[in-house]
Amino acid sequence: MSESSVLNPPRPLATIPLRPVSFGERKPLTKKELAGDHPTWCPGCGDFSVLALYYKLIEKKKLLQENIVTISGIGCSSRFPYFVQTHAAHFIHGRALPFASGVSLSRPDLNVFVFSGDGDAFSIGGNHFTHAARKNIKMTLVVMDNWVYGLTKKQTSPTSPLGFKSKTDIWGSMDQPINPLKQALAAGATFVARTTHTNPNHVMQMMEAAYDHDGFAYIECLSECVEFYPGAFDAANPRKGGAFNLVPETHNAADEIAAYQLADNPFPGHFGIFYKTSRPSKNQNEQDIAARARKPVEGKQDWEILQATFNRMK
Ligand SMILES: Cc1ncc(C[n+]2csc(CCOP(=O)(O)OP(=O)(O)O)c2C)c(N)n1
Ligand code: SF4
Ligand SMILES: [Mg+2]
Questions:
Q1: Alpha-carbon torsion, ordered 264, 206, 286, 254, to 10 deg
Q2: Does residue 46 sit in helix, strand or coil?
Q3: In which band, very low, low, confident or very high, does the pLDDT at 24 lie, cut at 50, 70 and 90?
Q4: Which residues surround ligand 3, an ion (CB under 5 A)?
Q5: Of all protein residues, whose CA lies closest to atom 8 belonging to ligand 2?
């Protein structure tokens, strides 16, 4: 063992149970206990749907309030943490994922949920998306994609379609939008799903599946900005004459190439789990390293390990 690891022995993380389910005598939390500030979103904003289903997920999975961390960046969607009574952080624009990575890796016993917008996740935060995905850091990320910057009142976002007129593209966007699903797959995400705020049952299914996934779980959720991009997703809404097509039953979600092809379909495309694979999370890898490093000093108190190090340095 190197001197530095003796000096700074890792905590025995392997002894911390992942996903504590010791609900004991306590009743599952309901919306009443979970609701925080009154949401300040515009009436009809798609983000309400995601919030309602987050409450439901916490209730259904019997999660303990103190074991949940709700993290966001900046944006309308990122106002999310104010509206839930859990540990939470409304962090810097584009930096929700590095903050969440730190929480997840240092406290693998907590349930980390990140709520982000298309600008937050793919513009200023694009690099963090790539690295959180490839490192397979355990968390659930829901990007509430409205194809526009809502909070700052209608600028082009990385997912705005060609021709979209905004304050930054008054003649219409000329830049090829990114495809978040393909981006997630290429980055190495181990769970990639797509849903839409207009189908609450489906949002719930995807959130449950993401929560059950052991690794970085990404959900692309279409969430209409009724103020600055009304009607953006009508073509995916049967109530507006559109089509809500589930991922075909024949799709093999373990097949990355098939997932990529499915993600390449033009809007409205498909909804469901595009890709799911199993790869050790960074949380698991770090816990393994910590357990190995701890082995030679087993049974020793932290101060004894420190003292031994100081003695060697004399
Ligand atoms: C470092 C930094 N740059 C820019 C901004 C301004 N800003 C705040 S929110 C936002 C974009 C929000 O769009 P999105 O992430 O899509 O969220 P939405 O409001 O659409 O939900 C921008 C550019 C900021 N707050 N901080
Ligand atoms: S501006 Fe758009 S995204 Fe923001 S709260 Fe209003 S409808 Fe929702
Ligand atoms: Mg947006």
A1: -50
A2: coil
A3: low
A4: 117-118, 146
A5: 45
Q: Are 180 and 265 in contact (CB under 8 A)?
A: no
Report the pLDDT averaged over residues 207-211.
Answer: 98
CB atoms near residue 66 (< 10 Å):
10
144 CA: nearest ligand 2 atom: 3
pTM of the entire predicted model: 0.91
Domains of the chain, by residue range, sit at 3-313
Would you say residue 13 has pLDDT above 80? no
Question: Which residues lie across from 222 on neighbouring strands?
Answer: 145, 196
Q: Measured between alpha carbons, how far is 79 from 74 in angstroms, rounded to an integer?
A: 7
What burial letters (b/e) apply to 244-277, b meaning 16+ CB within 10 Å? beebeeebebeebebbbebbeeeebbbbbbbbbb
* 241 CA distance to ligand 2 middle (Å): 23
Is 227's C-beta closer than 6 angstroms to any atom of ligand 2? yes
Say yes or no: CB of residue 117 within 6 Å of ligand 1: yes
In contact, 210 and 274? CB cutoff 8 Å: no
Q: What is the 101 CA–ligand 3 centroid distance (Å)?
A: 22
Q: How far apart are CA 52 and CA 223, in angstroms?
A: 13
For ligand 2, whether the C-beta of 41 sits within 6 Å is: yes
Task: Write down the architecture of domain 3-313 according to CATH.
Answer: 3-Layer(aba) Sandwich (3.40)
CB burial of residue 8 (10 Å; 0-12, 13-18, 19+): exposed
Contacts of 89 (CB under 8 A, 6+ apart): 69, 70, 71, 72, 81, 99
